[in-house]
Write a structure and sequence with these properties.
It is a single chain. By secondary structure, the protein is α+β, with helices and mostly antiparallel strands. The chain has 2 domains: about 70 residues, no CATH class; about 120 residues, Glucose Permease (Domain IIA) (Distorted Sandwich), CATH 2.70.70. Helix content is about 25%, strand content about 25%. The protein contains 3 helices and 12 strands; from the N terminus they run H-H-H-E-E-E-E-E-E-E-E-E-E-E-E. The strands form 3 sheets. Strands 1, 4, 6, 7, 8, 9, 11 and 12 form an 8-stranded antiparallel sheet that branches. Strand 6 and strand 7 form a beta hairpin. It is rod-shaped and about 150 Å long. The N and C termini lie far apart (about 140 Å).
């Protein structure tokens, strides 16, 4: 007849063997799952990027960044020439050497300024006996002094202005128009004529009704893009 102690010892041995088998089974399952996961994700030594391996082992230099490559590719080997638009006439041909002069020729020679350009601050008018704005420049010269075209262009108007008297307008292109007023004659040019730089187009007279009490002078205006500007800036 078996003793009570013997039965207890054998029961404990069976429980220990079952526990050990269970632990081994769990380890086997975990190992199989880990292998399957590594296979599915490609996390294997042979699948590493050879460039990364070389960088870790110090076998490769520091690779160029994308920014460095782009900068080196955008630098031109030769400089790109530029053309100044002011050196080209409307017909697209460059100025000849003899015409390469800054600014324009003055409309009259040896003149002094009788009344300056003043589009914002009114100036006193002896003729009108009041202060008015002045959108041109009055050049004081003797009567019949020659009046010259400041630049080559086309005569667009020859007429008598109610305020400024006999007037000639010349279109120089590039939205620039010159106006010569208080003239003595309209016989030297007519509408449609193409005049050269410095060509005489009329003489100084006394035909300006609004400036008739002023000394003999040429009333000259310069318009750019439809707006009167100070001519002295261009001389």
């Amino acid at each position: 007849m078996r003793s009570k102690n013997t039965d207890t010892y054998e029961s404990q041995n069976r429980s220990f063997r079952y526990t050990l088998l269970a632990v081994l089974g769990v380890l086997i399952v975990v190992g199989i799952l880990a292998y399957v996961m590594r296979t599915m994700t490609g996390d294997q030594p042979n699948m590493q990027d050879p460039l990364n391996i070389g960088a870790e082992n110090g076998q490769y230099g520091t690779p160029q960044t994308e920014t460095e490559i782009n900068v080196s590719q955008t630098v031109p080997s030769d400089p790109i020439p530029s053309v100044d638009s002011l050196d080209v006439h409307d017909h697209g041909q460059p100025d000849e050497v003899g015409d390469a002069q800054p600014g324009f020729v003055t409309p009259v020679e040896g003149a002094s300024i009788l009344k300056p350009f003043s589009a914002e601050v009114p100036l006193y008018s002896v003729t009108l006996e009041q202060y008015v704005t002045h959108i041109g420049v009055d050049y004081e010269v003797p009567a019949d002094s020659q009046v010259r075209a400041i630049e080559e262009g086309t005569v667009t108007r020859v007429y008598t202005d109610d305020k400024m008297g006999l007037t000639i307008e010349i279109d120089h292109g590039r939205a620039m128009i010159s106006k010569y007023s208080n003239l003595s004659t309209s016989e030297m040019v007519e509408e449609g004529d193409v005049v050269k730089r410095g060509q005489v187009i009329s003489g100084v007279g006394n035909s300006a009704l609004f400036e008739t009490l002023d000394p003999e002078h040429l009333h000259f205006e310069l318009w750019v893009d439809g707006e009167a500007v100070d001519p002295e800036v261009y001389f």
